[in-house]
Each structure stands twice: as C-alpha cells, then as structure tokens.
User: Which sequence fits this backbone?
C-alpha cells in the first residue's frame, strides 16, 4: 500500500482539507480521492492529489 495526500483550498488560499489515505495503485487513489472530494462537496474547489513520488494525480484550480 502507498500513501497519498489530498489537499483542497479556498480561493483565498486557506486550506480547507488535508487528507492522507492509502491505496494499491495510482488509479485506485484517483477513485478514492475523487470520492472524498465529492463527499465533502469540494470537487469544485482548488484541490490536488499527490502520489508518494510527488506525481499529481488530480488537480483543479
């Protein structure tokens, strides 16, 4: 299992979500990350999901 980091921000730059979770693959992490964003109504906020290697898997401005 690998650890991924999901963060979301308001337009002012204030962090409104800071989540870490584990997943088997980058693709599985994308699904989990998108689900977390939707559950918290943050899909339209600025957000990013980073892999342990620093690769951006999800990014929205």
Assistant:
């Amino acid at each position: 299992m690998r650890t991924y980091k999901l963060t979301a921000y308001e337009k002012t730059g204030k962090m409104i979500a800071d989540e870490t979770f584990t997943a088997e693959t980058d693709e599985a992490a994308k699904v989990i990350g998108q689900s977390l964003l939707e559950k918290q109504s943050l899909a339209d906020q600025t957000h990013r999901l980073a892999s342990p290697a620093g690769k951006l898997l999800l990014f929205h401005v």
User: Anything to note?
Assistant: The beta strands are 2-9, 15-23, 46-50, 56-60. The longest helix spans residues 26-39. The first strand starts at residue 2 and ends at 9. The chain has a mean pLDDT of 97.
